[in-house]
Amino acid sequence: MSGSIALVGIGPGSHDHMTHRARAVIAEADVVVGYVTYIKLVADLLEGKEVIRKGMTEELDRAVHALERAREGKKVALISSGDAGVYGMAGPTYEVLFQAGWTPESDVSVEVVPGASAINACAALVGAPLTHDFCSISLSDLLTPWPVIARRLDAVAASDFVVALYNPKSGRRTQQIVQAQALFLRHRRPDTPVAVVKSAYRKRERVEFTTLAHMSECEIGMLTTVLIGNSHTFVRHGLMVTPRGYANKYDLDEGGSTREGEKAGRSLSSGLLGWMAQLRADHAEGIGVATLAQQHGLPPDYIEAVLSAAVDEPETTTPTEETEG
Amino acid sequence: MSGSIALVGIGPGSHDHMTHRARAVIAEADVVVGYVTYIKLVADLLEGKEVIRKGMTEELDRAVHALERAREGKKVALISSGDAGVYGMAGPTYEVLFQAGWTPESDVSVEVVPGASAINACAALVGAPLTHDFCSISLSDLLTPWPVIARRLDAVAASDFVVALYNPKSGRRTQQIVQAQALFLRHRRPDTPVAVVKSAYRKRERVEFTTLAHMSECEIGMLTTVLIGNSHTFVRHGLMVTPRGYANKYDLDEGGSTREGEKAGRSLSSGLLGWMAQLRADHAEGIGVATLAQQHGLPPDYIEAVLSAAVDEPETTTPTEETEG
């Protein structure tokens, strides 16, 4: 008698944005376990099933219940909103399973079913803010010491990531968003575009555009995700867009032709190899490591390592491709 | 005669992990535009449609074609793998639309359909690595200068994010992953867990676990995503898991009871307010700003701002909740 646990991400909330696999796994389950709000989002799939509704802070409990039922031979679907792996139930569940002596060879099989995370859903609603490097930070200090969170905010503000803030504020936690704003304003322009997205693809969906200078004045709650643009992000016609960097290489006004000195499908002249060559040339002309480090905003020992590395780099003829999303 | 453009993320590749909306939009389209590899992934949905297959570097071209057809009144689906917003076609398309004078009030309506991104798919396959703050960095220097990429790698390595590297390597770009490894090793332990995931949920799917010290020796190509754990990430029974932080507050061996001095649903004693109180106490006892800044790994002017801020913080009785995924 072998049971199973499926850790299912149901997407932002509307059935339209749930994957086929997520829906199938819930439909086939004997038992569905989840936070009461998420259970409501899949209410129409639950007929004839045992449903275990849990409160927000009872996450370990949800995992314990899931394991209990799976050990009885039941098919259990443990649901998270968004993606089950992103601040979701996948992590805590594996921790509980390991503690209980579970292994992948045991009677209970485990599957994580990926879904569109809140960051994907919110981004789709506001335009295309995630076209360049981004990160996701939870402002909840219920399980993470504040200095860890603050160091992360400081680091990504300085290095120009697009940033999604999860759990930005709650009834008790009101100052974290103010602190995040202060840390960002040390590095970013006050007019950096910010989107405040509430309940993406659910009933009370609301999108508000603001700026870094004003973001803490917005209505922000437990169901809100805050998206902060990078230094190139702009808002036009009510859409927040981060350019991918084409402006460095292609001339959009000229119908997308390649800029002088750059080749389609090749690294930028300021790409790794071009940059290394320039660095060596500058150093050979007498510019010191400390100055180069400061110029490029990189640690001196990294600059030194680059300068002392062997030079020859093979150029193969394999066509260069990029993966997406 | 009004046409439409849907920017569709088809998920990792298998139909199982496509959303209902993504499938519906492709099914209803008159014209489907995309990179030839992604077109193949949805081949069974294309009967009777005009299909425009494009090469990898012809992204602006794809957007231009989509707009052209939409202006003729056609329903166009422009497909990306993963999520259309994450290094996908949503950004370049909006840029092309704006250049062409398009506005949301014009004849052509535009929708972004979110999907499970490569980071979500890869994470689901390897276990639960994204339970804590993470970021996504593309190592492609085709459109981004290397120093920008290097600064980001350095920043997130230092501040202990889980990191997904997109476009880690191609035929021509072989040294970027070596440089990324070097930058990470300045901050992270050599035995930091790394998962190298190729073609998640597609035919040639392959998962390899390694460590930061060895990651550049792995087989890495254009269809690979590299996941680097944070300082708490571990691999057990072939599963890569990042704890959410429960160990700080809950005692898993004791059935999940709360640790001494901590309360369920409340900030950690080292959370923002507790940390601020401690900082003030330490400062009152004579510990200087510079020392405190160093102790906590935060900028001195931020420490100063915290110390000089007004103290009273309301404790409301609203129950604290966390959002997921």
Automatic annotation (TrEMBL), chains A, B:
InterPro entries cross-referenced by the UniProt entry: 4pyrrol_Mease, 4pyrrol_Methylase_sf, 4pyrrole_Mease_sub1, 4pyrrole_Mease_sub2, Cbl_synth_CobJ/CibH_dom, Precorrin_MeTrfase
Gene3D superfamilies: Cobalt-precorrin-4 Transmethylase, Domain 1, Methyltransferase, Cobalt-precorrin-4 Transmethylase, Domain 2
PANTHER family: COBALT-FACTOR III C(17)-METHYLTRANSFERASE-RELATED
Residue span(s) of domain Tetrapyrrole methylase: 5-214
Pathway: Cofactor biosynthesis; adenosylcobalamin biosynthesis
Protein name per UniProt: Precorrin-3 methyltransferase/precorrin-6Y C5,15-methyltransferase
UniProt GO BP: cobalamin biosynthetic process; methylation
GO MF term set: methyltransferase activity
Species the sequence originates in: Hydrogenophaga taeniospiralis CCUG 15921
